[in-house]
Amino acid sequence: MSKRIIIRTTLVAVLILIGIFLYTIGKEHKVLIDNKDISVGNVICSASTTYVVRVDDQEIGVIKKGERNVAMVTGTSHKIVVEEIKGNVLTGEKHEKRFKLKTSESATINIPAMINNANEWIDKTN
Amino acid sequence: MIKKSLTKTMNPGVRFLINYAVPIIFVILVAFAIPLSGLSGLYFIRELMLRLSRNSFLILSLLIPVMAGMGMNFGIVLGAMAGELGLVFIMDWRIIGMPGLLLAILISTPIAVLLGYFAGIILNRAKGREMVTGFMLAFFMNGIYQLFVLYGMGNIIPISNSSILLPRGYGIRNSISLLGIRQVLDKLIPLKVGDILIPVATLLVVAALCIFIVWFRKTKLGQDMRTVGQDNEVARVSGINVEKTRILSIVISTVLACYGQILFLQNIGTMNTYQSHEQVGVFAIAALLVGGASVAKANIPNVFIGVILFHTMFVVSPRAGKALMGQAQLGEYFRVFVSYGVIAFSLALYAWRKRVEKENERKKIMNYRKSILAK
Question: Which of A22, A27, A74 has its CB closest to that of B106?
Answer without folding.
Answer: A22
